[in-house]
Recover the amino acids of this structure.
């Protein structure tokens, strides 16, 4: 295996579009760059079978194809990648030490692109039935629910995308949303509402997931009438937003009330030389194109910080 | 291209259940983004555990029976088999150190 150095100009934490774009820019600026990714290259967008709003792809491109191409591009310019989990960052003047499960690495600038992970519903049965009917990825698991009734929980773009994806396999898709209107964009809204297989359950929350060996029923509650009902379903796809992955940064960087990292207009945090990009940044619009843009902004400013 | 050898329903008994070494089975499908995402990580593990753990992958599209038998309803699922029995079941992607721990445990326990 290739030997990994311990000292770099830039360490990037996270291999989604924001981190990969940052790497393309730092490596092209001839800054030695280490990318640390904990689980696999691509970030959350790999769950999207078709990204329709990334400029330049008239017919769309799959999330995995897009991010694999970004990674190849970053590697081509010299970015090194390791798969490891970051557990802490220490700052001593211009030197930052990044601790992982396997060791320590130092760099002058750190770009945090750790993204966010899927928010759990937090109801009884969710954990027990994960992989047994509870899923967080329709593209991955839709085919296991051929000709069955499934539910999708959520009302944003991700939830509506999941619901539409599931109509390819399921006989019926029930979209469960706690409000009486969707947060999704108009175009997704129209597609979902006009789809013959999709039924929307407004003002409704899931309070329990029930079954024996796998999911069989969902206990629902209407938030206005408080009335409880049972929905027979073989699968439930949870798409209720995401949570920034910043547990290890508490006390190191300034975070907002939900744990996202606060940055200035250079995307620098309150610690000079540490930048935050993509979904982990407070105020991010959580799009691939903005994540990639963030990566470029932070990379350029990291370069300036290093040469100062 | 993955380093894990492809196993089918027909060869599961021979390649997994009768294996002398613990076997990590990666249940995947071509349409699954996260499955592709974890592939390089599984490859690194395959290098690190060479000679100690056998790595195979099973396309649930081509070989649905084994996945059904073991109740796989979500991919990627990584299952570790030892002496013909599943000893670990990991659904979705996990940090690499966590996967190493699961393999270390499979190697430790008699």
């Amino acid at each position: 295996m290739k030997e990994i150095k311990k000292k770099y100009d830039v360490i990037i934490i996270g291999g989604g579009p924001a981190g990969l774009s940052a790497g393309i820019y730092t490596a092209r600026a001839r800054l030695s760059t280490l990318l640390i990714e904990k689980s696999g290259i691509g970030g959350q967008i790999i769950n999207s079978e078709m990204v329709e709003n990334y400029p330049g792809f008239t017919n769309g491109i799959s999330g995995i194809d897009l991010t694999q191409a970004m990674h190849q591009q970053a590697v081509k310019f010299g970015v090194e990648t390791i798969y490891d989990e970051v557990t802490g960052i220490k700052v001593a003047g211009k030197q930052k030490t990044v601790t992982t499960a396997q060791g320590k690495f130092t760099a002058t600038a750190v770009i945090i692109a750790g993204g966010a992970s899927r928010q759990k519903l937090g109801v009884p049965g969710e954990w027990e039935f994960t992989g047994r009917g509870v899923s967080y990825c329709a593209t991955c698991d839709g085919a296991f629910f051929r000709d069955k009734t499934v539910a999708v929980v959520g009302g944003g773009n991700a939830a509506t995308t999941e619901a539409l994806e599931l109509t390819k396999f399921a006989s019926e898709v029930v979209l469960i949303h706690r409000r009486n209107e969707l947060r999704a964009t108009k175009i997704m809204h129209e597609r979902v509402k006009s789809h013959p297989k999709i039924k929307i359950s407004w003002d409704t929350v899931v309070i329990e997931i029930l079954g024996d060996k796998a999911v069989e029923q969902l206990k629902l509650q209407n938030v206005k009438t408080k009335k409880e009902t049972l929905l027979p379903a073989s699968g439930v796809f949870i798409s209720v937003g995401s949570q920034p992955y910043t547990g290890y940064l508490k006390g190191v960087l300034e975070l907002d009330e939900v744990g996202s990292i606060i940055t200035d207009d250079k995307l620098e945090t309150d610690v000079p030389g540490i930048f935050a990009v993509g979904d982990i940044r407070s105020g991010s619009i959580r799009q691939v194109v903005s994540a990639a843009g963030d990566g470029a902004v932070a990379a350029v400013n990291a370069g300036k910080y290093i040469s100062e | 291209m993955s380093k894990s050898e492809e196993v089918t329903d027909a060869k599961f008994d021979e390649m997994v259940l009768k294996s002398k070494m613990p076997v990590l089975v990666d249940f995947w499908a071509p349409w699954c983004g996260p499955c592709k995402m974890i592939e390089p990580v599984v490859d690194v593990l395959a290098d690190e555990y060479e000679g100690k753990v056998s790595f195979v992958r099973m396309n649930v599209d081509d070989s649905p029976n084994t996945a059904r038998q073991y109740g796989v309803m979500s991919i990627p699922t990584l299952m570790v088999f030892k002496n013909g029995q599943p000893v670990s079941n990991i659904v979705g992607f996990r940090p690499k150190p966590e996967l190493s721990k699961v393999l270390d445990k499979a190697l430790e326990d008699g």
Summary: The radius of gyration of chain A is 21 Å. Chain A touches chain B through 35 residues (CB under 8 Å). The CA atoms of residues 68 and 278 of chain A lie 17 Å apart. Chain A has a mean pLDDT of 95.
